[in-house]
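cron nightly-structures :: item 1 of 1
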Amino acid sequence: MPIKLETRGTENGNKVLIIDDNRTTSNMLEETLRANGYETRHSPDGNDGLRQVEEWKPSVVLLDLVMPGPDGNKVCSKIREMKLPNRPSVIIVSVKDDKESIVKALLLGADDFIVKPFEEGEIVARVRAQLRISDFYREIEEDKRALETILDVSNAVSATLDPSEILNIIVTRVASITHALRCSIVLITKEDEGYVLASHEDPAVRELKIDLSKYPEIKKVIATKAPLVIDDMADHPLMAIVKEQTKTLKGVSALIVPIVFNDEVLGTLFLRSRKKAKGSFSTKEIDFCRIIANSAYHALKNARLFEKVSKEKDYLREISIKDHLTATYNHNFFYSRLEEEFERSVRYDTPLSLVMMDIDNFKHINDTYGHRTGDLVLKELAEIIKKGVRKTDIVARYGGEEFAAILPHTSLKGATEDAERLRHMIESHSYAGLFNEKITVSVGVATYPRKDAVNSGDLVNLADDALYKAKWSGKNCVKVAEPPN
């Protein structure tokens, strides 16, 4: 009956390959090792053994020296030449007990040497010792990679002001270290609202809005401000309220680490992984992610600051080019865009039309109803003009009660028809605060190309002349700039 020790095979690797042509010996080894929790396979010769090492990737190889095909020393040398994800330990189990054989085997890459006949307890103890050594070196390598990642993140934070670049580095490196199926960073904006700022699955993901009521695991972390590990997302009690959405996540574990500053959860580092072992994420992985989350804080803080500054910049730009009352473009922006469109029309030989509109008798409105009502009329009239033109057209408040519309790629005929339609829309509208009063406009139209319009200023003068012609013709009408002599 095989000896069974109390401690079973290590969690990180318990696969043992036995390469021995003696079936009695290999059966005894397999029976002993399996009784102690190890998974075993057997190869009767060196060539098959090398194939199984490459395909099965055992943690330990028990290798006889004398057997068909390449002998144990050659097999050991070839194993050491293989590029494997983890270096297997090789223990020679042989009847040879001379010093020369032992020294040669160890020089060729063997880690230990056991002489036949052997004690079963010795075999288990030697295998376990090699696995402890392997685990030790594996942990050193993992710690090294974790420290390199922390250094990379720290360098990225200090080297760039672009939060998206930093966050993408973080999720990519963390996913690599932890072997996560998904690693993402979520920015918390409101109680039930968040944004995925980066995901290692898709670098293009930025500011993907999510409903946090569908993520009870994130809400739990926000409430507790502590890391949370879920071993099986499909069966965890916390996920019961979203059971329908998580039923495909059977066997998937999750780690959610809060990114906290001044007792406020700015966001979370969110990982999903499919791991065999219960407990899924190790203490080391959790501690590593907490360190990374602290580094991510700076990027998230920059993201919030960047968002705030961007909005302020957009607002400042908006008020710098827009008329504050009518929300149409202002006089300066009008001239800037008109010059751009004029140059484009000259370059590509396309038509460009300009429509100038002036409210008829607007002083009477202000005098009768007051400037407050006059302002309301201006706002309503501006909305009518904006709705009456295309999205590509530019509407501006040219003066006090004067508006202009730049119509790219529009001929004189098309511009005249548009102007007449706008005039009719303005006249037929009922304005708030006015008692049975109609608002009308006089309109002037000019179109490039024409010989007497060599720049955008000429086009303005021509449309303005046509506008005054409409005023002198009785108002509430559309006039076109006179053809050049």
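cron nightly-structures :: done
The first strand starts at residue 15 and ends at 19.
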